[in-house]
Design a protein that fits this description.
The structure is a single chain. By secondary structure, the chain is of the alpha+beta class. Helices cover 42% and strands 23% of the residues. The chain has 15 helices and 15 strands. The longest helix has 24 residues. The protein is globular.
Length: 426
Amino acid sequence: MVKKINNILNKILENIDCKEQERFIEKELKLFLDKIKKKIISEKIDAEIFVGGSFAKKTIIKKKVHDVDIFIRFSPKYEEKQFSTLLKKILKGFKNALLIHGSRDYYQIKIDDSFFMEVVPVLKINNVKQARNITDLSYLHVKYVNKKVKSEKILKEIKLAKAFCEAKGIYGAESYIKGFSGYSLELLIIHYKTFLNFLKKISESKQEKIVIDIEKHYKNKNQVLLDLNESKLGSPIILIDPTHKQRNALAALSQETFEKFKQDASKFLKSPSINDFEVQTIDLEKIKQNAKKNKQEFILLQTKTNKQEGDIAGSKLLKFYNHLTKEIQKQFEIKERGFNYNSKKSARYFFVGKKKKEIILEGPNAKDNKNANKFKKKHKKTFIKKGKLYAKKDIISNLKDFIVQWKANNLRKLKEMDVSGLDIVN
């Protein structure tokens, strides 16, 4: 088994190697940084540049699209509200510079279909106390990881962890993923030493909360739980940021994503396969055929939003997906469902469901004449059971009719949830 796993991991390391892409990125990055430096000097702006993210930490893996984080560190003499104006000056004249709204506005610059850069304004700090925004800590994150990750072996272990989570769709702290950020995976491998040990320890853990404090900022687990802000304690893993003891680097991790990771990790350890590192596409035609075979209904929907693509659009479409699921469940038993966000402004949902036999709505006490009369006016088929009023609700014949009728009756709700389109694809 050990030999088999090692053979798989070595093969994966070959597959995710991206030296050719790295050379391209380095070339484009050098040209870009030279222009930026000249612009900063010509505009007489007190700022410096540093490159962050996986590229700066040498933990980059092969992907269809790569991005590099470029941080413009502004002098503390500037007020935070000036950062946006100063960054706009620096990037004036650059093609394809797209403004992205966030906790601080930043720019995304597309180089080609496989590579873009994100230029982010931050405050130049030397310690966490000076930080005014979470992005200000990025410089300290890069410094810490580069200090801790000295050997080629641990770099490989980090890359394996990233490739595994990427394949499972749980790589990213975005609110529509609620998974493992690149930085958190780097810290987890620094802590657990190897990718396999990371999988083993997490999948076998029976703890309600896993607490990891690499730099021993706290005496024990209880002190962590007492000292940390309650908003940072919601995730199943509390990973104390080594550069900032009040921050949980895995605060975005949801219980659902965590459980999925545990299942996937356990499955790989029991029956290792190279397929575990490959993104699995959902065979909708197969799901549709299985639904038909089991006398169930299948529906594929496409939704759209006008909100900014990325985390904002993704989270809006995910929120609506969860809302629509609850609405469908009122009349159908959902056997299977799925959500796929395209990283732009639309997403697709599929549902496999079976119509419920009947829906019984609970009403007021039968002797409560005022409310009982209101209930009877609202519902045609009512009956009394043990002194209480109930109503039988008609069930819409099929899923497609349900969606059509629900959309017609809930145009206001769609607008409130920032959904600009809801269409049946199949």
